[in-house]
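Subject: for your reference before the review

Hello V.,

The reviewers asked for a structural picture of the protein, and I figured it would be easier to keep everything in one thread rather than splitting it across files. Below is the amino acid sequence we used in the manuscript, unchanged from the supplementary table.
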Amino acid sequence: MSDDEINEAILDIFEEWSLGQGGKRVLGRIYAVLWLEEGPMEIREIKEASDYSLTTIRSTLGVLERHHFVKRVKIAHEKKLFYECCKDMTQNFQNSMQNTLNQNLRATLGRIGSLKKRAENLKNEKRTKNVKEIETEFERLGEYVERLLEVELPEKKG
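And here is what came back from the structure prediction:
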């Protein structure tokens, strides 16, 4: 296998991993491009390595950054933005779950609580029951995620 074939196989692995997690192929591709570079890359360099548009790369980097898979890096005497891959995927996943719990899940529970009060005020038993069931499931999900976050991460090897 040539060096290019190995690189392409690595890109494919990350694309498939992203798809398997419910993400888009581009998330895996951009993450893999940064991983293979082994150092910070500017957006135009990522474009050359990935063949995606600048708009797609910017939005993808935003998603990857929110989920802690990439980070912005400042380089002395440079005005351009650089990005670097965070290679501790287990820590990245845990940080992403923590964000989900803190932002999305708690906000959702707040909205459900408001909806439950409105349904109760309407005296609609069926809708009140529906909302309470949904609330119970989201609370259960939150408890599960909190327990998962308490699990100690395995040590890195090698």
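For the response letter, the relevant points are probably these. The beta strands are 41-42, 70-73, 82-85. The radius of gyration is 21 Å.

Happy to draft the paragraph if you're swamped.

O.
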